[in-house]
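User: Fold this one for me? It's Flavin-containing monooxygenase.
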Amino acid sequence: MAEHEHVRVAVIGSGFGGLGAAVRLRREGITDFVVLERASSVGGTWRDNSYPGCACDVPSHLYSFSFAPNPDWPRTFSGQEHIRAYLEHVTDTFGLRPHIRFDSEVKRMTWDGDALRWRIETTAGDLTADVVVSATGPLSDPKIPDIPGLDSFPGKVFHSARWDHDYDLTGKCVAVIGTGASAIQIVPSIQPRVGRLTLFQRTPAWVMPRIDREISGLERRLHRTLPVTAKARRGLLWGIRELQVQAFTKHPNELGFVEQLAKRNMARAIKDPALRAKLTPDYRIGCKRILLSSTYYPALAQSNVDVVASGLTEVRGSTLVAADGTEAEVDAIVFGTGFHVTDMPIAERVVGADGRTLAEHWKDGMQALRGAAAAGFPNWMTIIGPNTGLGNSSMILMIESQLNYMADYLRQLDVLGGRAALDARPSAVHAWNRRVQERMKRTVWNTGGCTSWYLDASGRNTTIWPGTTSEFRRATRRVDLAEYQVLRPSGGKDGAEREPAAKTREAAA
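Assistant: Here's what I get for Flavin-containing monooxygenase.
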């Protein structure tokens, strides 16, 4: 990285969000940008999560960019290796590699109000940027609970997102901590080769069958020859999920029928009533993410698997102790305990106009205007920000909506002319967040009777979008300049700039 390099846009991260932002910038005619990536390759969470059985729980044709369809998905639900290969393909197809700075972890981003630019410190050198697009993603920093005695455990310990492929689990006594989306894929993948597997389950999950199959050569040829067929397939998958949203957001009681289907799925594989009781949730389905697997329950029914219906509370040497007193002696511990979602570490590295970090601004809960802009952080926006997550559909749809917003944001800076920055008005941020939280009150994520990773430390849902993806796309189609303050190089906030800027926009539209 060149010393004192300056770019118009700095994108942080090279997962779906970062690569999507890079493609959109090029399509907007912007080439003066860099993508700062802390690792040595692209892929984000699909690079980091390489554990056995890792796959997506969203259908392949929906879990891809609309502008980069892939007619050659091998399965209806793609594995990690296929998704990572797809992201590498996108990188090369759209000529993104010259823009990517690998092994460049961002240590700090500080807003310079006099120069109207961001000063960015990375492990590979420093640079400045007019605009920062943070696409680090919520599933990027693993969370391992603080368990007394864990530091003195003599065996192997690793998180699902940092899988140690050099460690052979064959014949070992292995503990898996957690029952989320990663754990239900890991358990059936390692169960046949470990000596004994102990699953520490703090809360059981609702699990539906995963109807996965190989996509035939005929289907692939059809999608290659007639791209409209792949588009129709994607549209059907999207439409079905849009129709499901009301049950999650307005009528959670309608999900009782789905619970019965999930119970039947369990009963087919779990014949032991005691084990079935352990695995049956006591909250409304959908409150936590509904998991998809046709192999999880059969694996738990095997003779070399123990299910401890209690969380891990202590480690004594090689012995793991659950909250209910159950003990298990193991050789290795695999944490499937998720990520720092509502307390994203990147927020501690972003310093705004008032000298405080984004983490300090968000100490009472994350909030951002239209999921993208935070008050006091001019010309900074995030992809997959607060309340943009989904409980039943593809996050790529939300990412593309935010890319529309990013593109219009940059257009408005051009319309304003000269040196200018946009800072989200606190009143606009609060108004947006108030509307989102009001809609959240009746959703299954808030009323379903569970504690999930969607909720922050105060119990507020700062993660999920309480509506359809089409609603979010409409809300992020264009930037409303009335929701922003215009900053000029003098450092003052010139509220009078708003009305002329809006008029200029109308003239240019």
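One thing worth pointing out: The CA atoms of residues 247 and 254 lie 6 Å apart.
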